[in-house]
Amino acid sequence: MLSLLWFIIIPFSAALVTLVLPASNPKTLKRCAFLGSLLPLLMLLWNNTGWLGADFSVPWMRALSIHFHLHLDSLSLVFLFLVNVIIPISIVSERVVTTPRFLYAIILALQGLLNGFFMAQDLVIFTFFWEAMLLPLYFIITLRGGKERQKAAYTFIIYMIAGSVLMVAAVLLLYFAALSFDIPTLAIIAEKAPHAMLISAIFLLAFCVKTPLFPFHGWLPITYYEASTTGTILLSAILSKAGIYGILRISLGLFPNIMREWNPWLLDLAIIGVLYGAIVAWAQTDFKKLIAYSSFSHINFVLAGLFVWDSTSQSGAIIQAVNHAVTITGLFLLAGWLELRLSSTSMDAAGGLAKYLPKLCWITLFFVLSAVALPGMNNFVGEVLILYAVLGQSIWLAALLGLTVIFSVVYMLRFMHRIYFETPAPFQKNWVDLKGKEIWLTVPLMALILWLGVYPMPALKQIEPAAKKIMSLAKMEKGRNK
Amino acid sequence: MTLYNPNLLTYFLLASSMDLSFYIFVSMALFAIGIIGVLSKRNALIMFLSIELMLNSVNLLFVAFSYSWGNSVGLVWVFFVLVLAAAEAAVGLAIIINLFRSKELVDVDQYNQLKG
Amino acid sequence: MELVLWLGLFLPLAGALLLFVCHNFISRRNTGIVGCSLVFFSFLCFVKLLYEYSQGIYLPEVTLFSWIQIKGFDADFSLHLDHLSLLMALIVTGVGFLIHLFSIGYMDHDEHFVRFFALLNFFIFSMLLLVLAAHLLVFFIGWEGVGVASYLLIGFWYERPAASKAAKKAFIVNRIGDLGLLLGILLTFHIFGTGNIHEICRRAPLEFTVGAPILAAIALLYFWGATGKSAQLPLQTWLPDAMEGPTPVSALIHAATMVTAGVYLVVRMNPIYTTAPAVLTLIGYVGAITSLYAAFSALSQKDLKRVLAFSTISQLGLMFLACGVGAFYAAMFHLTTHAFIKALLFLSAGNVVHMLSGETEMDKMGGLFQKLPKTAFLFLIGALALSGIAPLAAFFSKDLILEEASLTGYTTLYSVGLLVTVLTGFYLIRAYCLTFTGASRVDAKLWKNLHDAPSVMMIPVTILALLTLFGGLLGYASSVPPLLMSFLDKDSQAFFIKALAFGFHLTTDVWFSLAASIAGVGLAAFIYTNFRERLSRGKLAEFLYQSFYINQLYAFLIVRPLQFFSQLSSKIFEPKIFEGIIPVCTHVTNSTSRVLQELQSGQIRSYISWIVVGSAILLVYLVFEGFYA
Fold it and tell me: What angle do CA B81, B87, B93 make, to 5 degrees?
């Protein structure tokens, strides 16, 4: 009875249950939602790599040969693990007293949609889940967050839809060329379709807006800033990975040779994005925006890895995507707790808080060190792989990309020192240090960071075949074999 | 006046039979008058009259063509149009009366609340 | 025997973790016991390994697990113990243990006692990982690990803004160097296909011709990393500020061990450097210039620890000078003696600072010889030793460096070294005189209760003093090959190119260097005991005090433009361009819609006229185009 459909059904049914559960105690609702979101993770862990190759295909609209086709390969497995780890954490991070049940339900719905997205093998289903993901996020942003969250939600939705507005057209163009929506089938003939470049560009634009790649990040600061902690975690840790998965599955899967041609420009954009994000992060006076720009900078680093034609680089990018998600979840969680105590996200609100909030301080430092890619922590593994591959392209590009090593420390330490170190501000009553429950929430993240940093081989063993497969799809050109 | 430069009146007077084109001209003239009436009159009732005029001009056209073709296809259409015109007049006048009840005016320019 | 190696490496880490977990409920006494004993056991492990090695039993490369293994990239967590790393490990754990002992006394009033020892243990672990690594990436883990430990320890008293800022600066400048090292390591992977240090060192001279540019690039990148870690020009600005940390930290990290990691790197990778002689010469000159710069800057410092910090930079410059002329053995010898002597100097200074309740400015010291005689005596031993007075330790090592420099024909470097010797003697004795001799400027209340430090702090210092007195014999003996040389000689790599024959040979070089030391010492002693009150602060003194205004130069040339660009990006590019594109789109849509709204006027007649116009156009079109379609 273990079928891929459960990954979609379980979160949705949990959402329904949460909506109709006649419980007056909000804690029960939270527990119910948490359990519902934990079940897919348990399913994944139960069978682990046994899930590889699982398939689920049901014809949906025969006349148009659309099938509801789900398939789990190693690439999907990695991202599926990621989603099903982060979403329970985001549910638990919601503050019980003020959360309406609708919010829990919508997060669970998002989980279902994401699970479907990462398994979709039919372009129509893929597009459906891609667009549908935005709806729960819109509600998540508008329900809880900063003062301008309505505007932020509008900006977010419209920018995203503007990016993927032509995606349906591109899908249809492919269909007319191949008379099938099935991704594996399309992989063979996609590049021979008429207007292949246009289709590839449309898809790439949609993915780059979501991730976001450097020039398309206009929506990022306001949306990350105005959303609540949960919303920001879901946006930064998961939504960007959806974009990366899209690039891997569609852009590199269906149009490898076109992407190979475009790689140099995209790599330049990504490197500019890394440095630009770091420079702007340095100037921020608000720590939530600083972490948002940091997330932007690091995700562009991942993209830089994607845009190098080398399987080492692709593996590095995929594992760095996972690492980034884990680290940024931790950082935003801690920023949220800090905001709770300071009632503001400005870095000038108080200083020297390490004296009163030592646990918060040192755990934040741990995640900061992870974000700056300290060897022994997760981000170092991906970073070193990506830098290695970019070095193979050009030493100057690698040097530029490597500047993130310096800049990330500059702005992260600025944040740490402004808030936690230097002269302590006078004590205020609500400056209570982290309680046990909050610490336990960060423990799985810290464990993941250390595990992926010190012993990444299990993850890499899954990722490497996926990366190799993508490389092998491209035709080898005469004499060039990288 | 020579025979090689007939003006319209002469043409009509010298015509031996009623040519189809006369009916088309008249019909077009009536139609144009109707359109100008609809466009330039502000009174709703006058606009209605003009619309009826347009409909009737089309009726004339149908009859003429029916005679010209020699079958009764056009005449059937005439009946349709007549019925429709009557129904529309009934409904339209009812609407106008209701409008008048709300604003005491039949000036269509004043009924512009549906602007957007 | 493998187990001994793993124990030696991981015991300090275990100590750090234990102290971290128990920090809320462990007593100070137990913390001290745990912290010191674990480092001591680690030291014993290495002593045992030393014993085995002297018997000729060697360890092969040991691997714990496979770290990153994908196509094209191959990193194992593996350790390799050869004589060089064994020497470094012994220094690290030995001196580390003594400093741990010292810290029990020094930090006893501090409320974060446990955190200090946890961090010190973590540092020892990282440094050991660095010296024992068999793979470049493992080396890099240790390299960055000591950087983090240094950051956390310099900023240990995080509530002090100066300490926080210094810690941040240290971490950032270190990172600038680390970037170079990382790029060098990755380039090495590309060129050699492996990261195994032994492999690389074996293959470098075989596969590349002398002067190959790619190897020079790798060597240069490694040296850039070494510059950052060992505080050479241009990345030396962090070390003087790092003195804001507690004195044991300054002694351990910024004198004896972490800063020597750069020298260790160059010596370890010496086959690459000998295959890239241009870079090696560059290293020599950079070391010489740095040495001179630091020596001059130290002449005018007012803070006791800063004098010692600049002295460290200067001595490290000498070590790099030695590497530059190919005298790797001399560099390692000087590294060893310097470790003892600097630790001695810093710990005696720490005694003074501790007894004066944290005062480090020499303006507020003076005449302490009367109250702290033992400390003064030990400090004097250290100062004389580092100045190069025979037969104290550094005479032999420094003299060796200078001799090698003149032997290999680098006369400029030799003269620079000689000048540095004079200056070293001068500023060290100046520091001694200002602190311990003359009239006292100490606060009267402190003066009354001043006494020598407790024995837990005096014993380590005494041990170091003994090492200083007799340590020279390790590396230089009159008739037989000295211990250190024969020890390091056993490395399979061609470890030193120009080995100086052992034995007493009082060449002119030796006399010159001895004379230089004595001159410096004597001059300072003369000036500072007699004319101390009449020294004024002139422009030159200010220039040297600000260490040639390099900090300000960097702030102007690098930090300010970056800040400007950062502000520009965040205030203009972000809101106006990238975020601004969204309001622009909204605006365009709105105005278009407002224009189109005019059509919906609510006027029936306008609607009708549009219908008429539209149908007329359509009709015309159909008439003229449709029929002939």
Answer: 125
B51 in a structural domain: yes
Question: How close, in Å, is residue C379 to chain A by CA atoms?
Answer: 33
Neighbours of chain C (3+ CB pairs under 8 A): A, B
Q: Give the three-state DSSP class for A55.
A: strand
Closest CA to C374 of C394, C395, C347: C347
Query: What does the alpha-carbon distance between residue A38 and residue A84 come to, in Å, rounded to a whole number?
Result: 7
From chain A, pick out residues whose CB is under 8 angstroms from the CB of C162: none
Give the separation between CA A21 and CA A29, rounded to whole angstroms: 8
Q: Å from C627 to nearest chain B CA?
A: 20
Asked whether A and C share 3 or more beta-carbon pairs under 8 angstroms, the answer is yes
A384 to C68: CB separation less than 8 angstroms, yes or no: yes
Contact A340/A415 with Cβ under 8 angstroms?
Answer: no
- Note the Cα C297 to chain centre separation in Å: 18
Dihedral Cα A290, A294, A295, A298, nearest 10 deg? 180
Parent domain of B92: 6-110
- Terminal CA-CA length for chain B: 60
Q: Does B115 sit within 8 Å of C604, measured CB to CB?
A: no
Q: Which residues in chain B are contacts of C609 at CB distance < 8 A?
A: 39
Q: Which residues in chain C are closer than 8 Å to B42, comparing Cβ atoms?
A: 605
**C309/C359 Cα distance (integer angstroms):** 16
**Cβ–Cβ of B35/C601 closer than 8 Å?**
no
DSSP, residue by residue, C398-417: HHHHHHHHHHTT-HHHHHHH
Q: For position A479, what pLDDT does the model report?
A: 35
* Number of domains chain B contains: 1
Which pLDDT does position C528 carry in this prediction? 74
Overall residue count recorded for chain B in this entry? 116
Give the CATH number for residue B93.
Answer: 1.10.287.3510
| Secondary structure string (H, E, C) spanning B55-77 | HHHHHHHHHHHHHHHCCCHHHHH
Q: Collapsing DSSP states into helix, strand and coil, what is residue B105?
A: coil
Report if residue B115 sits inside a domain.
no
Of residues C141, C161, C582, nearest to A155 (C-beta): C582
Using pLDDT thresholds of 50, 70 and 90, give the confidence band for residue B116: low
Q: Is residue B1 part of a domain?
A: no
pLDDT in tens, C367-424: 888 888 888 889 998 898 888 887 777 787 888 788 777 777 788 888 898 899 999 9
Amino acid at residue number C420: V
pLDDT digits (tens, 9 = 90+) for C180-208: 999 999 999 998 888 888 888 888 888 88
Is the bond preceding C391 in cis, omega lying within 30 degrees of 0?
yes
Tell me how far apart the alpha carbons of residues C229 and B95 are, in angstroms, rounded to a whole number: 91
Count of beta carbons in the 10 Å neighbourhood of residue C589: 11
Indicate yes or no: CB of A310 within 8 angstroms of CB of C581: no
**CB-closest option in C158, C175, C571 to A406:** C175
Please provide the average confidence, as pLDDT, over all residues in chain C. 85
Structure tokens at C365: 């010291």
* Predicted model pTM: 0.88
What residues 511-570 of chain C have any CB closer than 8 A to a CB of chain A? Answer: 562-563, 565-567, 569-570
C603–B39 CB contact, under 8 Å: no
Cβ burial of C52 (10 Å; 0-12, 13-18, 19+) is middle
Is B89 part of any domain? yes
Q: Give the count of alpha carbons within 13 A of C113, CB side only.
A: 24
User: Is B38 in Cβ contact with C601 (below 8 Å)?
Assistant: no
- Sequence-distant (≥ 6) Cβ neighbours of residue C123 within 8 angstroms: C145, C146, C149, C150, C153, C252, C253, C258
Size of interface A-C (CB pairs under 8 A): 147
- What is the rounded average pLDDT of the residues B20-48? 91
Where chain C has pLDDT below 50, the residues are 479, 492-498, 501-504
